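Thread: Modeling a multi-component assembly for a lab meeting

Hi all, long-time lurker, first post. My supervisor asked me to bring a structural picture of a complex we are working on to next week's group meeting, and I have zero experience with this. I have the sequence lines for every component (453 residues in total). Could someone generate the structure of the whole assembly? Inputs are pasted exactly as I received them:
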Amino acid sequence: MMQIFDTMQNRLVDLETRDPNHVSIYACGPTVYDVPHLGHARTALTYDLLKRFLMWSGYTVTLASNITDIDDKIIERSAREGISENELSSTYTKIYIDQLREFGVADPDFRPLATEYVEEMLAIITQLFEQGAAYEIEGHGVYFDVDSLADYGALAGRTVNELRESAQARVASEEDKQDPLDFALWKSAKPGEPTWDSPWGPGRPGWHIECVAMSLHLLGDGFDIHGGGSDLAFPHHENERAESEASGHSFARYWMHSAMLNVNGEKMGKSLGNFRTLGDALAQYGPRPLRLAMLQAHYRSLMELSDETMKGAIGGIERIDAFFRRMLGADIQETSIDTEAKDRFMSAMNNDLGSPDAIAVVFETINSGNAALDDKNIKEASMALTTVSELLEVLGLSKDTVDSDEEIDSLVSEREAARASRDFAAADRIRDILKDRNIEIEDTPNGPLWRKI
Ligand SMILES: [Zn+2]
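Re: Modeling a multi-component assembly
Sure thing. I ran the full set together rather than chain by chain. Output:
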């Protein structure tokens, strides 16, 4: 059985699903006012990997991941650029979707837009009023009363008083709010802003109610996993949970949070000036090395993405592709999976999505496959090939077509033959020919590997 780290219980727990053999997951998506950065990519990758692995393990999975298409930042930027909020958000939604696809992140089963769920949001706010958990301030909007939920702060692992102290220290509370921790469910219309009608006058939804409405509508009460980046745990997720529970809907059974990302030693963020976008990284390194680099860090650990990390990941992808080229060149066919390697991969992934250990199993299998081929052990080599193909598919790292170039392959074979007959002059000549074509050969204990340089 899979174990995941549940933020709410602050420990590893068995994944016991609401429905047998089905897992429902809601992962918070981006607010679309700019191009995606690497943190967005890491978050999306985490839930893509979770879904792939669960499906491979025999579950059916429903993954919903939203787009927040109305927000202060969207309103500000579209005003600055003199375009409509809708124009701005659809431009960046398209870029987000296109780049995630390029990155190899599969589309979720549902990608709801917040603005399409206003009716559902209003219904939940109405329920919160009925439960005495909401109050209205004329001219400001509707607020959630944190005192209405006995365990507000449980997800953050803090008491209401602790949270209240830091909230008071952080921001001067809005004039009429009953408590600095109370937060907006519905914001009254301001001039020039997009608005929707509501029983409390025209306005627009608060951020947290959007995700509550979308997740409950698409996945139902008591859905299995709520995920997102760790920066969303408080207050966004705490407040989502509060709204759902206080309105009478049981919310997520488990909470998963993927950690943040440092780029070349600095915290990922626009303000620091080292902002590197997903688009930049894809153009610079390609999707597979970027994906491998991210998967080689556990999703809950702060990731350091540096030129050094990327160099290692590019080398890793080359080793994978060289393995396939070599197996293809030797006409090795896929047969059956190596159950021992499969079991080790599975237990790594069952342990809170342990992708670094799972990837290590893949590279060990590549090494043993190469060694088997050296020994002309076709059966072992076939098994390794089958295993590597299948496991890479789970990680989303497989490639539809492996780079193959018969001419280069035959030059490499000629050079091998020359070396075998100790004709080193001929071998060096062929190496130079390859070098002129930007092909570098590396002689390894498992035979030569070539790569484009
Ligand atoms: Zn959310």
